[in-house]
Amino acid sequence: MQIATPYLMFLGDVPDRLAAKTAYGIADWRPEWCIGQMRLPGCAADLGIPDLTLQEAVAEGCRTMVIGVANAGGVLPEHWVDEIVAALKAGLDVASGLHVRLGSIPAIAEAAEANGRQLHDVRHSDQTFETGKGTPRPGRRLLSVGTDCSAGKKYTVLALERGMRERGLDADFRATGQTGVFISGRGVSIDAVVADFISGAVEWISPAADSEHWDLIEGQGSLFHPSFAGVSLGLLHGAQADAFVVCHEPTRTTMRGVAHKLPTIREVIDLTVQLGRLTNPNIRPVGIAVNTQALDEECARALLADLAREHDLPATDPVRFGVEPIVDRIVAEFPPSNRAASA
């Protein structure tokens, strides 16, 4: 799948920032690809880049309109169809990370064919996966897990990839969601994989590697979330994670989209270790990543210090304060000599 850049980011009329997390992720990690945004009346998200009409976007050189929205169920609102058709007629390809396939909507399929444009459904893979086997494989793997969905798992492993490479470590981000695939150009949207093959798909995206190599696997959902725990468990088993980082948003009391109480970080650590030992008996936590965006700096640093003391783990906001403490722990827990010896 080759998606032409640069992008016009379509935000529709989403009610909040989290609903446009795909667009924010691409804009944060690939800003050079994002020329402008297109928003409908009532949109509460803003990427901070120019608002463009379709004609302006084409004139600025945009080649693909990306539907930068992640909503419950991955549905495409009916009132967005006309906007997508107009984009195709204006000369743009359209890419989506939603569950619904663009080509399954007759008006969109007809407009794409009539105008010679491409439709990209990033969430859907043509790859055939085997069931997971759980057989140990060389290389090291780190998985981000969460107290909730939309808690920073993707940003954490992207920041760790950058931080570990700066430290001279061999590390690669492995995308398991549509935004990550847009950012990295590879990966699998795990929540669109048939349940029996989730762990096998994760084994496929993080195969056997050199003993010095780290695959940094993007987590999804939460083991405690009633909607997404099945995906989270398949990811954990397929990753055979040597290490994991717990991601947390401290202002929430219930998990996103449901009435269930947010689990504690300790509960997440304990359950991740218990379940992760099925495919890696030596799995261990190496840090806590906290999204402190809603806190001022003094409160954020105080919270991180408290969490570090409570759990005896480095705690940081990867975006705000960097990932150096977690990288330090990884280096200490997995020195090169140990990695070579385990090959």
From TrEMBL:
Domain D-glutamate N-acetyltransferase-like C-terminal: 132-327
Coiled coil: none
Domain annotation D-glutamate N-acetyltransferase-like N-terminal: ranges: 42-124
A Pfam family that the UniProt record links to this protein: DUF1611
Stated name of the protein: EBNA-1 nuclear protein
NCBIfam families: DgcN
Annotated InterPro entries: DgcN-like, DgcN-like_C, DgcN-like_N, P-loop_NTPase
